[in-house]
Write a structure and sequence with these properties.
single chain, mainly alpha
């Protein structure tokens, strides 16, 4: 198996794509989950239409906030992994150049 810096670049590019969609994905998923939870709690407690709507809105808002927070954290983790991979490629290239210079002396 040979070292291929292009494969690491492709990996980093894929991580950046995932990072772009992580915030939206987590926000939407947890917003829907919060909405469902809010509807259940609202109808169980008061058994009225306004409680259903209020529970849905409140649950969606809390879920969206939590999802956005988780999504930002996940996005940062993915970007950091991509940067770490790219940094390793640059380090390897610099070491190869340094070895070439030393071998000429």
């Amino acid at each position: 198996m040979l070292y291929d810096p292009a494969a690491i670049g492709d990996y980093a590019e894929e991580l950046y794509k995932q990072a772009k969609s992580a915030i939206v994905f987590y926000t939407l998923c947890l917003s829907l989950a919060g909405c469902s939870f809010g509807v259940c709690i609202g109808t169980m407690v008061w058994h009225m239409l306004w409680a259903l709507v209020a529970g849905a809105v409140a649950g969606a808002a809390v879920g969206a906030y939590v999802g956005y927070t988780f999504g930002r954290r996940r996005s940062f983790q993915l970007k950091l992994r991509a940067q770490t991979a790219l940094c390793k490629v640059v380090t390897e290239q610099n070491m190869a150049d340094l070895l070439k210079v030393w071998s000429r002396q």
